């Protein structure tokens, strides 16, 4: 006796999902990246937008970005003396106001190398 014989015959779809057209038209639309700068006093927003708008269409540029931008925060350290941990220096990268944009730029460069160029990116991970 096989388990497959008993389980597949009793499989059925429990419910159907239907999307009402009038409900979808009334839903509010939210943007993840608003195109107009918000008036929250963020003076660094133009530089953030400039980093986000960098187009990666050159393998040489993508390799350079992957080499320059580290995969992990290089400042996190455990300070040890005679094998005993004295203190821990937390990662300071989160204090960088452009951290999210720079990490996103590195990710786009890795995706370009892997998807468009078909290269092995394991050396950058």
From TrEMBL:
Q: Which domain of life is it from?
A: Bacteria
InterPro entries (alphabetical) = Mo-dep_Nase_C
**Ranges where the Mo-dependent nitrogenase C-terminal domain occurs:** 43-125
Quote any Pfam family the record assigns.
Mo-nitro_C
- What protein name does the entry list? Mo-dependent nitrogenase C-terminal domain-containing protein
Source organism (scientific name): Nodularia spumigena UHCC 0039
